[in-house]
Amino acid sequence: MVCFIYLTPKVCVKLSIAVSTMERNMRTASGIPISVTRKQMKSIRLRIRATDATVHLSAPHHVSDHVLYQFVQEREDWILKQKQRAKALPRTHPIDNSTRARNALLARVHALAPRWEQKLGVKASAFGVRLMKTRWGSCNLRTKKIWLSMMLASKSDTLLEYVLVHELVHLLEPGHNKRFYRLMEDAIPHWRKLHKELHGE
Ligand SMILES: [Zn+2]
C-alpha cells in the first residue's frame, strides 16, 4: 500500500487500514471522506452524489494514490460547494404538496408574519406557498407578494421564520447588498447560523 506523501505518518497508519479493501477510501486535508474505485477507464472522474452528498472518485488502475490525492486537494473548494448544494436539495421523501400540506404551511407563515411586518415596518400584499425546489422563498417586489417553498414544510419555525424575514427585508432592500445584510443583522443577529442550518451545513 502506498502512503500519500502529503499526509502525516499518523494519518497514514489510519489510511493503510482503510485501503486494505478493494473499495478504497481517503480523506481530503479538511477531512471530507471520499470513496475511491479503480476501474478500467481513461481518466479520473469525481462526482458528488445528489441523493446523499457523498463524494466518489473513480480512477484508472495506473494512477497513483498520490496523484489522486493531489487531484482532490486541488478541487476541495469545488467539492465543498457541491456537497452543500446536494445537502440543500430535498431528500428522498417526496414533498407533500397537497392542499392540506400547503394550508398547514401557510397557516404557520400567517402566524409568524404580522410580528415581523410590524417590526420591519413593511407589509406584504399576500403570502403564498408553492413547490419550489431551487429556492426557499421569493419576493415579487412589484406586487409585494411573498412566496415560500413547500420544502419549508419539514423545517422548524425558526428556519421558516428566517426565510420569511429574508423575503420581508427584500421589501426594504431588493438587492443582496450591504444594506440588506445590515437589515438582516438587525432583525435576526444570528441569521448566518440559521442560513447554514437551512443549507445542511
Ligand atoms: Zn434574497
Automatic annotation (TrEMBL):
<protein>
    <submittedName>
        <fullName>M48 family metallopeptidase</fullName>
    </submittedName>
</protein>
<feature type="domain" description="YgjP-like metallopeptidase">
    <location>
        <begin position="102"/>
        <end position="199"/>
    </location>
</feature>
<feature type="domain" description="YgjP-like metallopeptidase">
    <location>
        <begin position="43"/>
        <end position="97"/>
    </location>
</feature>
<dbReference type="InterPro" id="IPR053136">
    <property type="entry name" value="UTP_pyrophosphatase-like"/>
</dbReference>
<dbReference type="InterPro" id="IPR002725">
    <property type="entry name" value="YgjP-like_metallopeptidase"/>
</dbReference>
<dbReference type="Pfam" id="PF01863">
    <property type="entry name" value="YgjP-like"/>
</dbReference>
